[in-house]
Amino acid sequence: MKKLFILSAVLLIYACQQPYASVTTNDEKSKTIKTLFEKVGEENIDYLKEIFSDSMEFVDPAGNKLNKTGFIAAVENLYDMFDDISVMEMNGDALGAEVETVTYNNGIVWTNIWNTFSATGKYTGQKVSFPFHLSYQWEGDQIIKEVQFFDTSVFEKEMNAKAAANNSSEKVVINIDMAVNTGYSKDDVQVFTKKLNQFIRDNEPNTYDYSYFISEDGKRVTLIEKFRSSEDFIFHADKFENGPNIKTFMKMFTFKSLVIAGNVSQELKERVKNYPAEFRGNIGGWIY
Q: For the sheet containing 220-227, what is the strand order?
């Protein structure tokens, strides 16, 4: 019995010492990822089409998922937005940039890269540089999944500039100037708008900017709203008119002006025809 106990203890210690995975930095898959980024810098889309599986899944930093067709389209859009794309050299010293492949005991293989993306925006003209981390899962010699981890604000800024240059933005901006009606104090407005803000957060994920501004005397309020599309504003109008706040809103405020700016759809114009709305189209600048 004592020998059996000793043997079990030895086996347990041995098992605990076994790694769950092995890490390599100069293997063929790591080299393939290095080549991949060389090809990205050359804007060689054919290499990407070859190395990524037709059944691949792409996951961006926001958790959005694309198939291969959507992924290739996203890379082509990257090429349209930036010139002089480059990353730091990955030479095995693990200083600032590196690539490594992890093979787990269950056979799953991931290659990870951390590096810095540098480029020049074609639409902003600005030089950009930011750190990124990407992970690639393999099936044989092809990549079946890419997961991204980085701040996307640089890309969003360039996309906004591109949309402005092409006058193709679908975003809509609402500017409402209102008088605060008699009987309502500055504190009343503040308490009510806090309630409105929470309602928007709870019910309207695509209302990405919603801000109230009040004059020093508490008699005038400006409301700025931004929507990703005309459809999102229509959704907002439906929620507002059928929600719990419309009666108080109409008692507290009187519209002085209502400007709806952007490439507004005909459906939106029809939806707000009972409001004193003035429409203004894009002629320059960009909408964040």
A: 207-214, 220-227, 172-180, 253-262, 277-280
